[in-house]
Design brief:
With about 150 residues, the protein is mainly α. It is built from five helices and three strands. The protein has one domain. This is DUF1453 domain-containing protein.
């Protein structure tokens, strides 16, 4: 099976590339960013779902990895530069720290997936990766939006 045999994977990879590119350009802080998170969450929940062989151990590992994804999203949301431009518009743009946190998010997810494969014979399921990235992006947006609201109140 090649990557192009599964259109869901191709669409998700293209969407992920767009999300990353948008992270590093100055953009308004708007609620539409939640649409990207919702897209990844939906891709992650497409059958067969994030766990192929649910056991206590594999579900626990999924929960741990999702919690890690949320934690990294919170860190990025609290760290990403947010400012008001000359016209009073609230903007955000990722920096080197944002990139490092994204790389750490993905690396953590892949390491935990590998642990599931080695320790529990759970195949590496891309749906779990998309689900985690969607939660991470939603957490990032939530904390970035909170910072934007606080900045607009000043």
């Amino acid at each position: 099976m090649t990557l192009t045999d599964n259109p869901t994977i191709v669409i998700a990879v293209v969407a992920l590339a767009l999300i990353f590119l948008r992270q590093f350009t100055a953009r308004r802080v708007r609620a539409t960013a939640y649409l990207w998170a919702a897209f990844l969450l939906l891709i992650g929940l497409v059958p067969p779902g994030p766990v192929l062989h649910p056991t206590v151990a594999t579900v626990a590992l999924l929960v741990i990895s999702l919690c890690a994804s949320i934690a990294f999203g919170v860190l990025r949301g609290r760290q990403i530069p947010v400012w008001r431009d000359g016209h009073g518009v609230i903007l955000r743009r990722g920096d080197a720290t944002t990139m490092l946190l994204w790389l750490a998010t993905i690396a953590t997810r892949l390491v935990l997936a590998a642990v599931g494969y080695v320790a529990f014979a759970e195949p590496i399921e891309l749906n779990a990766l998309w689900l985690g990235l969607g939660l991470s992006l939603a957490a990032q947006q939530l904390f970035t939006a909170r910072r934007a609201i606080a900045l607009s109140a000043t």
